[in-house]
Each structure stands twice: as C-alpha cells, then as structure tokens.
Amino acid sequence: MAVNTVSGCIVTYNNMRTIEKTVSTLLEYTKGVDFTLYIQDNDSTDGTPDFVMKAFADDPRVIVTKRGVNDGFGAGHNSVIGMIESDYHVIINPDIEIRSDVISDMVSYMEQNRDIGLLSPRICFPDGRDQILGKRDPKLCYLIASRMRNEASPSDALREYAMLDCDLSKPCDIENATGCFMMIRTDVFKSIGGFDGNYFMYFEDCDITRTVRQDHRAVYYPDTIVYHVWGRESKKNLRLMLVQIKSMFYYFKKWRKYG
C-alpha cells in the first residue's frame, strides 16, 4: 500500500521564541506519512530562518526559504504552491506543538472520507484547556463577543460562534476553521489558488474555509489534538488591531452576496 505524501508549511516572522519546539515536535511525531516541511520566512529580523537552517540542517524533510519580503500570512503560504506535489497539505502556525502523530491520523480520516476537502483538529492551550475558536461563519456580533470574551464563562454569542451548543466530542461539519493548523487536500489548495492574498493577516482562514466549502466539506475532527500558544496579539498591538479591522471589512464585502 502506497504511503501518502504530506507537505506542511510554516510562515515565519520573528518566531525564534517558539519555532524550535514547533518544528521539533512535527518531525518527532510525524511517522506514518512521507512528510516534507517548508519554512517560508517573511523577512524576519531576529535570525529565525538561519536558526532553523542550522538546527535542522541534517534533516532533509525541512526546506527553508528566505522570501525577503513580508507580504502577509496568506501570501507566504501561497509561495509553496509551485513546490508541492503532495496528497495533503498542512497549514501550520509557528507557535504550535503536537504530542502524537496527528498528521497521519488526519490523513487516515480524510482517506476514509473523500468528500472532505479541509480538516480541522481540536485546538488546545499547552496546559490542555480547549481554545474557544469560531467554527461558524463570522458575524459582527460573534466578533465583538470574541474580543470581549470571558474564557471561564463565554457569552451566548461566543458559544454560538464556537459551536459550543453542539456535540463537539465527535466529528462534525463546520463553516470556519482556524488557520493555526488545518489540513487541506493539495489538489483543492492548488485549484482555489491558495489563500486570498488581499488579506495581510486575519480572516484569511475564514475565507479559505468558505471557499473550500463551495465544493467540499470542511470538518472538525476532535480525535486529534494540536496545542497552540495563541498570543492574541491583536488585543495588545494597535497596528495589528487595525490590520484585523481592515481584513474584517474586506471579508464582509467579499462575501456579502452570499448573505
């Protein structure tokens, strides 16, 4: 039986603090597939790409590209489209950690369910608490609830946005998947042209999920867990908050024809 090929991509920008654990755990635990990891660096100034090149120089699965430009999350991920010839492709944040062979498990599930185009795992904080993440298409009330969130006692709107009103102990169809870690069929990723490059950062994950759903299912798969640091930088940084607002307006303008 042929082994499935999987490509993964991490777009980095000054991620020295987290990148070693992310790459190390991906290489340590990913065993059941033929895996290649692309690190696309968006012009870091802290030495991230040089560190990765040196730290993982002996592992041919790691390919680092210094892009020399910071043109956004989606554009960084799109830069590998011409390089990959895999069965499946994984979008990976530079601040995640895995503790089991989640990539092989996700591939196995997608092999058994050929109508799924995009698969999203359960996302937890490093201490094991579930992250409350949107799984329905964004609405303004959801986004306000998310920004004003109380993790211990989420509002009704946040619960609805994160589908906490549903049984999330088993796989279910979702409208929105988080971009910190998602698996997509490579042919689907290529056919849609990857991410919409009009987003510099934020909402590109909502957008690509919605695009994939036009012809395929997007599914939440809780049997696999990915651990995510999730700094929520837009709450601390005014510039990033403005980037997020710009992306929000673009998203709603683009998709308003669908209601």
Characterization of the model:
By secondary structure, this protein is α/β, with parallel strands linked by helices. The chain has a single domain, classed as Spore Coat Polysaccharide Biosynthesis Protein SpsA, Chain A (Alpha-Beta Complex). 32% of the residues lie in helices and 22% in strands. The chain contains 9 helices and 9 strands. The chain has helices at residues 19-29, 48-55, 73-78, 102-112, 140-147, 156-161, 186-191, 204-212, 238-255, and strands at 5-12, 34-41, 62-66, 88-92, 96-97, 116-124, 172-173, 181-185, 217-228. Strands 1, 2, 3, 4, 5, 6, 7, 8 and 9 form a 9-stranded mixed β-sheet that branches. The protein is globular, with a radius of gyration of 17 Å. The N and C termini lie far apart (45 Å). The model has no long low-confidence stretch (mean pLDDT 93).
Q: How would you classify the helix and strand content by structural class?
A: alpha/beta
What can be said about the biggest beta sheet? 9 strands, mixed
Q: What is the fold named in CATH at topology level?
A: Spore Coat Polysaccharide Biosynthesis Protein SpsA, Chain A
Q: Please state the CA-atom Rg, rounded to the nearest Å.
A: 17 Å
Fraction in helix: 25-40%
Distance between the termini: 45 Å
Q: How many domains make up the 3D coordinates?
A: 1
The low-confidence parts are none
